[in-house]
Write a structure and sequence with these properties.
Distance between the termini: 17 Å
CATH topology of the largest domain: Rossmann fold
Structural class: alpha/beta
Radius of gyration: 21 Å
Number of domains: 2
Strand order of the largest sheet: 9-8-7-10-11-12
Length: 352
């Protein structure tokens, strides 16, 4: 199984890390292969080519050494997809059945933006795979429209439950947590605008890496200009036990993305028994039942986002807790690591 491995931050790394500790690792001879970037920033073209050549040789050696039956390749849009296509080609040469696991909220736009030659190459890479995994029914439909002739199955992401006890301060203003890249695509400017429009007293903590150069500095400047420094804080990347504790201390979760796949951070919030406020994009409307285990708002609508967060903030804590329990029940049934591992074992068995 190839893809970026922890401590890399991101959905793919989280999935691989979870599967490596799951029942899947107990019931198969699972070898994880790290494709995360290891070269320095500003590397030369020659360094990049040499690094990729080394990666291909190590991948081929791993397949031979383990006499692999299945090569499960986690991939996403951009150049990464075509480089992962080389991993798939090498695996087929070794006699492996190939599984391509598609991540990311912009993969459809990536395919739509390819020129005819690259689009044909992308379709060939996917058609040659024995199975393609999509994260949701919606993404299965999008991929089937763009990748005719491919065999696509649905397997949602799964996450582990946070470790620790909830410790929310009942006297403090409600706190919402954002987990994700700090970027326009994740809706951070919309969230700032929603905070400035809010009628209730709540605050938001932003945890994540910078998704655009200079974004954090610009965001801090906008926060200061609006006098919201006490209500919106940037924490930087938060991982491991610190992330668990952050979720366990929060009153809710917010992710106002403009495009998504199936975000791991939303599932982590559900696992922490938090009500979530998310946008109706990607797989999120398939997961969240509005008003039951979270609230759905249109993407890019700061007024609707402010109203949803105000609504949660003004609810008695018992009502927020009930919504969080409903989110947790859905997580346990569909989006736990165990559920993901069981589904993957079924898909592997069907390949034989």
């Amino acid at each position: 199984m190839s893809g970026p491995l922890p401590p890399a931050i991101g959905g793919m790394a989280s999935v691989l890390g979870a599967l490596g500790q799951s029942e899947l690792a107990q019931r198969t001879d699972l070898a994880l292969f790290d494709t995360g970037k290891k070269t320095r920033e500003g590397r030369s073209l020659w360094e990049g080519i040499r690094s990729r050549w080394t990666l291909m040789r190590e991948w081929s050696a791993l397949l031979r050494r383990h006499r692999a039956d299945i090569a499960h390749i986690h991939t996403c849009s951009g150049l990464t997809f075509f480089l992962d296509g080389l991993l798939a080609w090498l695996a087929r040469r070794q006699g492996c059945r190939v599984v391509l696991h598609i991540h990311g909220g912009l993969f459809d736009q990536f395919l739509d933006g390819l020129n005819p030659v690259l689009r044909a190459l992308a379709r060939r890479i996917v058609r040659r795979a024995n199975l393609v995994i999509a994260l949701s029914d919606d993404w299965q439909q999008r991929l089937e429209q763009r990748l005719p002739g491919s065999r696509i199955a649905v397997m949602p992401n799964g996450v582990a439950e946070p470790v620790g006890q909830a410790s929310r301060d009942p006297l403090a203003p409600p706190t919402f947590v954002f987990l994700g890249l700090l970027s326009t695509l994740k809706g951070v400017p919309v969230l700032l605008e929603a905070l400035s429009r809010s009628a209730a007293d709540w605050r938001v903590l932003l945890a994540g890496n910078e998704g655009e150069p200079g974004f954090s500095d610009r965001l801090r400047a906008h926060i200061a200009q609006r006098g919201l420094g006490a209500r919106m804080q940037l924490l930087g990347p938060v991982v491991g036990p610190a992330k668990d504790q952050l979720l366990l201390q929060a009153d809710g979760f917010v992710l106002p993305s403009l495009a998504e796949g199936l975000p791991m951070s939303m599932l982590e919030a559900m696992a922490a028994r938090l009500p979530v406020v998310v946008t109706s994009v990607g797989a999120m409307p398939e997961v969240i039942e509005d008003g039951v285990d979270g609230l759905l708002v249109p993407p890019g609508d700061a007024a609707a986002l402010a109203a949803a967060l105000d609504r949660l903030a003004q609810q008695p804590p018992a009502q927020r807790a009930a919504m969080g329990r409903a989110a947790h029940a859905k997580y346990r049934a569909r989006y736990s690591v165990d559920a993901m591992a069981q589904r993957l074992l079924q898909l592997y068995a069907a390949l034989r």
